[in-house]
Every structure is written in C-alpha cells, then in structure tokens.
Amino acid sequence: MKYAVITGISEGLGFDTARFLLESGIQLFGISRTNQEALYDIGQENNVDYIHYSCDLSVAQEVNKTTNKLLDELDKLDENDQLFLVNNAAVIHPIKKSTTISQEELAYHYQVNVLSPMNLMNQLLRKCCEKHISFVGVNVTSGAAINPLFGWSTYCSAKASMNMYTKTIALEQDELKTGNKIIAFNPGVMDTKMQEIIRSSDKKDFLQVEQFKQYKNQGVLSLTESVAGVLIDIMTDEANIINGDIYDIKDYT
C-alpha cells in the first residue's frame, strides 16, 4: 500500500497534490492549520482514507505531537508499503530589509520553513529505515534559494538551507544503500496567496515588487494544478529519481 504525508494541504500546490494522490489511490495524511473538507469526499470516491492533522508548523510542540501521531501510524506499516512525504508548507514573511527583522520574526520564519520540515523528514525517514519501508521525500523549494532578492533574506536563506539539507540527507541514504530518495522541487511562480502577499509589499521593503505585479498582469503565473501534476509524475517515478537533485518546473514546460 502507498501512503503520503503532505504539509500545507488547505490550498494551492498542497491541495492539488493531495487531490491527485488521493485520485491515484494513495492513502493521505494532511498537515495544516486549516482542513480542506473536499479531500474527504475525494478520498471516499477513490476508496482511500484521508486523515487530517491540525498543526501550526511555527509551534515546535505541535509539530512534535503531530509527528508522534504519524510515527504511530507508520508502526502499522511493513516492508511492502511505501511512504511519500511532501514538505510543501511555507511562509514568505518577513519581507523587509535584514537590519529591520526582529529575532522573533527570524525564529518564526525558520521554524516554519526549515526546522519543522527537517524534523518531520528526519523522524519519518528514521522510522521507514527501521521498518524497511520505501521512502520518497520532497522538499518544495524556490528559485530564491539561489537568487538573492532585496527584502527576502529570510526566505532566500531558508530555501537555500533546505536545498543543502536535501542534498546531504540524500547523500546519507546513498551511502547507507537504503534505496530511499529525497529531492527538492522548485515549482516556479504560481498563482497563489503567497503571490498576493508578495504583490502587496511596499517597494521600500521589496524593490522588485513591480516585477511580481507584472507576472500577474501578464498572466505568466502557473496554475497550481498543472505544477502538481508535474510534481507527482516526478515523485512517483521512483526508478528514475535522481537522489538529492533539485528539480525545476522550468525543465518540464
């Protein structure tokens, strides 16, 4: 049996990825602050279960509690099963000059974008290794990981951190010859609420805000449904996954 864990399933890329996985007959565990009731119906229509865990990824205690619940679920699986993990949830704030960012803002951002996804993957991968469950992990990244932007020091550095984490944990799995795969996936600029937040930025905080407004006006923002389809094609083609690779939607359009 195949199972998947996805963070940030209430909307956007997370929701569409979750929807497609359920339609493919994969059992789904969703993690987000807000549930997406439509996923229950999609699961029922395809005879698979959807279980939602309400969790604020900025609160370490909630993440640990949710992770422990997932570990209990994995205890029910065996070597004939497979687990996918998609670390999709992320925040863009704070968008401002580095010298004006508070310690509290830094801690919040890194908890959501770095510490929580790393902890979740570490713990689930450990359990899969112990029980010889096949594991495929995906960290959703961004072009900001390699392209610095004025006002995005937290987001750029957080995504760069996750890229190197992806390469490192994949290297470990290769050296251990587990067969487990961990990759990163850059979905590009999509028509999401995060883009709305970016476009609402003050130019003094984000110098390239007009460029992002043009993305919307010119209709170049990708639909999350299309991007989710590409992601699922990549992550479910286990035989051809390049472990530790940073996949980019641009290579598939």
Describe this structure in words.
Helices cover 46% and strands 15% of the residues. Helix 1 (12-23) runs parallel beside helix 2. The protein has a single domain (2-189, 222-252), classed as NAD(P)-binding Rossmann-like Domain (Rossmann fold). It is an alpha/beta fold and 253 residues long. The chain has helices at residues 12-23, 38-45, 60-74, 103-131, 153-176, 193-199, 209-217, 224-235, and strands at 2-7, 27-32, 50-54, 82-87, 134-140, 181-186, 246-248. The longest helix is centred in the middle third of the chain and has 29 residues, at 103-131. The mean pLDDT is 97. It has a 7-stranded parallel β-sheet with strand order 3-2-1-4-5-6-7, sandwiched between helices. The chain is globular, with a radius of gyration of 18 Å. Helix 5 links the parallel strand 5 (134-140) and strand 6 (181-186).
